[in-house]
Amino acid sequence: MPTEEVGTVRNGPMVPADGTAAVDLYWLPLGAGGWFVRLNGRLYEAVRARREHRRPLDLYHSALEVQVPEGRFVIENSWPIPDRDGAARGVIVEGPVVHREIARLRAFRYEVRRWRDGVIPDVAEAVGGPRRLSDDIGLARRLLEVVDELPAPVWGRDELGTGEMWNSNSVVSWLLARSGLPTAPIRPPNGGLAPGWRAGLVLAARSVRPGDVPGPGSAGPGPVQHLG
Known about the structure:
The chain has 228 residues and is α+β, with helices and mostly antiparallel strands. It has helices at residues 35-51, 137-146, 168-179, 197-206, and strands at residues 22-29, 58-68, 71-78, 91-96, 109-116, 131-134, 192-193. It has four helices and seven strands.
């Protein structure tokens, strides 16, 4: 597994020397810390709720923190890209936002980080704090490894015909499914919705290769977006 540059900010405990491992999921209100994403998310959900004849729901963005004996890593999708120093944030993947033709501009590209000793910028706003998904060291290491295989569809569009747009939740659900972690029990906070979650599961199911042994709940793109 490639080694990233070490960050300077910590948002969680370091891993004990006895080899303890953990995979934690954070649910962050969409647009926490940024009015532009929050406003657009609310408009998106208002239109969708009206079309589906229901009340608007709270929207959530997800991020992961993985602890292994080698260190602690934050995995998160971020847009827009703040600067060109991606190595300092452990950037593994960059992809286009809205349209590939305009992705030459940094403002229209997103990045996915596997950031050693990194920080989730809005972690203080996470609803319910970290949710422990696994303490299996093999699964934790596998999760870190599959970040290298992550696809980079157009953010905010259903470019690959999964039935949902690709976004940060798609990245997290894809990684969990491809690493073998169970995804069926995972739900956003009560009364909330995680748009894009199903897109990651659908794409992960398509990309399972002969010889892969998916874990429980990782191969099927069943209903995982619960309304609370």
